Amino acid sequence: MALEIHNMAGHLIRRLNQISMSVFTERMKAQGQTMTSVQFAALNAIRAHPGIEQARLAELIAYDRATIGGVLDRLEGKGLILRSVCETDRRARLVSLTEVGQALLDEMIPVVRGFQDEILSGLTPEEREDFLRLAAKAADGGNHLSRAPLILEKKV
């Protein structure tokens, strides 16, 4: 028996998130990794922006600034990143990948790319493209409603 919530965007998004997290976790376990999707996102952003400020990293992956430190603590504990104090602002922490972090990310990127279609396995390839386009449009449109909005470019 279908419930009203079964056709509500919030419920369906939550279910897709459950599916995505489950697939991610299982694929990481299969690789012998305990990496979370947020840790993967952080590593990916750090690789694209070596020496990035910790607060800016949170903006680039749409993650809460107050809790990004814990994510980075775990990555640092695994020897995947290095943090240093910014010379121009002693309050800021700069983050970069270690060689181990770079190697692990290089290994994990194809794995993560490889299971993206599985997350949307109920869709045809064309529908997946449509879904991703529409999901990005919806996320962009509602970005201002987020507790941790995605900020791609800093306003000067």
TrEMBL record:
One annotated GO biological process: response to stress
GO MF, any single term: DNA binding
InterPro entries for this protein: HTH_MarR-typ, MarR/SlyA-like, Tscrpt_reg_MarR-type_CS, WH-like_DNA-bd_sf, WH_DNA-bd_sf
Signal peptide annotation: none
This protein's record includes keyword Transcription: yes
Domain of life: Bacteria
Protein's UniProt name: MarR family transcriptional regulator
